Amino acid sequence: MKVFHNQAAIFPVGYHANRIYWSMRHSNRRCKYLCYIEEEAGLPLFKIKVVEKGHDDLILTGPTPKAVWNQILEPVAQMRSSSGTLKLFPVYLKGEDLFGLTTSAVTRIIESLPGVEACERYTFRYGRNPLMEWPLAFNPSGSARSEPKVSQSVAGAHQGRHSKSSQYRRMKAEWKTNVYLARSRIQGLGLYAARDIEKCTMVIEYIGTIIRSEVANRKERLYESQNRGVYMFRIDNDYVIDATITGGPARYINHSCAPNCITEVVTVEKENKIIISSCRRIQRGEELCYDYKFDLEDDQHKIPCHCGAVNCRKWMN
């Protein structure tokens, strides 16, 4: 990630944008420029394909957005100057702008990509954790409705010094420094420790829309009919947190048969909260996981487990 960003923009591999700009061959004509970001030898490669009617396609490459666009801007400026057309000043044009990387809608999407937390030099425009409204991809494991009712109590070592309410308030203020989102070694996306986390520490809250169990059952069938992953967490026998459409990053925490976190229901100001806490010391960069504790099902409805733990049960339910 160190070489795939600067202070102004992040350079995601696979990025593609179509731009319309002045032609290098005709002073009064525009043409299409197809912009790509690729990877070569561990470094970003910026590529532009010039598409103009009546001419063969031209491929230009450069190590930076500015370097590749200068191969276009300078000929355009010279042609327009010699023909008496309005002059352009390429020195003031930024390659990141011409690639479309600084466009507001594009920036919002890029800042939501997994791993952007590692972009230390980049100046975020929309916050370092724009994940709260992220749409979820199809989850091949099916329903992810977890059951905290059998989870053991956590933070017992700190009970004498700090109430759970004070621990909760501290967690709410610091959770963005605790975790980051990235590709999971287990499945899909996963949540990772952004720093060393001591045992019995509240890491993050599982948030979403609180609904009744009857509504949760109906919504679960609806989501499945839409081929959408289901992300729900039961608070008690009556209520469920639905994070499928609107939820926090905690919904990306994967299941493991050898978890480093546990879940518990904590009552704060007369409201029940689902908290994910560390059950052992977690090192920075380690993927967070907990036991979903699904009910046992028959062979026809078994969900395979991919956690890779030595004691893996092979099935999540």
Automatic annotation (TrEMBL):
Provenance organism: Echeneis naucrates
InterPro entries reported for this sequence: FYrich_C, FYrich_N, Post-SET_dom, SET_dom, SET_dom_sf
One cellular component (GO) term of this entry: nucleoplasm
Residues of the Post-SET domain: 301-317
Compositionally biased tracts (Polar residues): 143-154
Compartments (UniProt record): Nucleus
Example GO BP: methylation
Region (Disordered): 143-167
Residue ranges of domain SET in the record: 177-293
Top EC category: transferase
Name of the protein described by the UniProt record: [histone H3]-lysine(4) N-methyltransferase
Keyword vocabulary terms for this entry: Chromatin regulator, Metal-binding, Methyltransferase, Nucleus, Phosphoprotein, Repeat, S-adenosyl-L-methionine, Transcription, Transcription regulation, Transferase, Zinc, Zinc-finger
Reaction catalysed by this enzyme: L-lysyl(4)-[histone H3] + S-adenosyl-L-methionine = N(6)-methyl-L-lysyl(4)-[histone H3] + S-adenosyl-L-homocysteine + H(+)
Gene Ontology MF: a single term: histone H3K4 monomethyltransferase activity
EC number(s) given by UniProt: 2.1.1.364
Any Pfam family matching the protein: SET
